[in-house]
Design brief:
The chain is of the alpha/beta class. It is globular and about 75 Å long.
């Protein structure tokens, strides 16, 4: 509840007037017949609309049930959520904002602030989507690992689980390392990039960065005690990104079958990542 009040009082209230004015002036300005502000007013105030968005993201209920809870028609539920999403995204520490800062870091002290221990952890997560009607889309979105049609989101987090970088959703058929090669975040050169075995070959393909990857067991051979010990230590460090993915998936809109249009996924995942980042920031402070 305290985090809700902080976001609302310190961010949303300050930005809402300018955001709403800009939205009204830009909406259909070429065919507008009435002055800005004309038309139906919102039945819910800003605070209730923010609460509506959080309930929808956290529980991923239908618009019909949300309408029952907030005494609105389901079409108004959709409208209210869409109108406030852009504002909420601006009020949160989304990965894009953080990554733009980290690209300008120079001194070791600045790097240490965003990458404690000079560590960054990279991994991808999958989310199921409805089975596409088009045969070609069924093929490119089918994940052989999950045996479902999915989309993938690649993340880079620091030692505290804070999301530094996020790649927009990719087709489920693509391999994690293939996504990384085309969309790899550029961490400061002092930072060690920690991967799992799904990124085998990263040390060869990206020699300019410091990479850490577990030892792969050779077929018909036993791993040495040193290799096993290294892998155990590596897994203990890397568990932080699994915890972050778990935090993201507590928002059911990021965990259940994604019922919205795919072109909305990046905006929704930005907001969910921003909410997770905001909570981590508060816990650290």
């Amino acid at each position: 509840m305290q985090e809700f009040d902080d976001i609302y009082d310190k961010e949303i209230v300050k930005r809402y007037h300018n955001h709403e004015l800009k939205r009204l002036l830009s909406a259909r300005k070429d065919v507008r017949e009435r002055k800005a502000g004309g038309g139906r007013p919102f039945k819910l105030d800003v605070k209730d609309r923010f609460l509506l968005l959080l309930v929808y993201y956290r529980l991923y209920i239908t618009y019909t049930l949300a309408g029952f809870l907030f005494d609105l028609d389901q079409s108004n539920i959709c409208r209210d959520i869409q109108k406030i999403e852009k504002l909420i995204r601006r009020c949160l520490p989304i990965p894009q904002k953080i990554y733009n800062i980290t690209k300008r870091l120079k001194t070791p002290e600045e790097v240490e602030e965003y990458f404690p221990g000079f560590l960054a952890f990279i991994d991808s997560t999958e989310q199921q989507i409805p089975r596409p009607v088009d045969k070609r889309r069924r093929t490119v979105y089918y994940s052989g690992k999950k045996k479902k049609h999915t989309i993938k989101t690649q993340l880079m987090v620091n030692k505290n689980g804070f999301i530094i970088h996020k790649v927009g959703h990719k087709k489920g058929r693509r391999h994690d390392y293939d996504i990384y090669k085309e969309n790899h975040p550029n961490a400061p050169k002092q930072v060690v990039n920690v991967f799992d075995l799904g990124y085998l070959g990263v040390e060869k393909d990206f020699p300019q960065q410091i990479s850490s990857i577990p030892n792969r067991k050779e077929r018909n051979l036993q791993s040495s005690e040193e290799q096993k010990e290294f892998n155990r230590g590596h897994a203990k460090k890397r568990i932080v990104i699994e915890h972050t993915i778990c935090r993201l998936k507590k928002y059911r809109i990021f965990a259940d079958v994604f019922r919205n249009r795919l072109n909305k996924h990046n905006k929704i995942s930005d907001i969910v990542s921003g909410l997770v980042n905001y909570r981590i920031m508060k816990q650290q402070n």
